[in-house]
Amino acid sequence: MNARTRRKHARYEDEGSRARNEAVSGDFFIPERVTGHENPNGDFAATLAGILRLHGSDHEIALDISGHLAGDYLSATTHFALPYVTWGLTDFSILFLRVDKVVDMTIVVSGRVTWIAAASKP
Predict the structure, then answer these.
(1) How far is the C-alpha of 78 from the C-alpha of 47, rounded, in Å?
(2) Closest CA to 36 of 15, 13, 62, 5
(3) CB-hemisphere CA count at 13 Å for 54?
């Protein structure tokens, strides 16, 4: 790939990213509660419940999470099914192309945790 092709390819990727970001700018997760337990070795299992907002509609969801906490370093994984058609998003099936109405999602995260002291109650 020469320099001109790379610039052209990068420009298309940038334009695609901008369009995707504008389309999903109102989509996010609002955590409400976490329940679970941590083993002495740092492994943990938890359920993170909250609201997943997609295209302006709120959907309750509970994510089963497994992970490991070592000091301030956290790694975690969750897997869930997202029934996007039931939730009112576009069904991309057309003519001879048929797609599932549910998307299987796996999310893997890792990073440093910043611990914030709990506010004292009066």
Answers:
(1) 10
(2) 62
(3) 14
Domain span at 68: 26-112
Strands (E), the chain: 28-38, 43-54, 57-70, 73-82, 103-112
What is the pTM assigned to this prediction?
A: 0.67
- Let me know if residue 70 belongs to a domain: yes
pLDDT in tens, 10-66: 444 455 555 555 555 678 889 999 999 889 899 999 999 999 998 888 999 999 999
Does residue 35 lie within any of the structural domains? yes
- Please, which residues bridge with residue 48 across strands? 34, 63
What lies within 8 Å, CB to CB, of 107 at 6+ separation is 77, 78, 79
Cα Rg of the chain (Å, integer)? 20
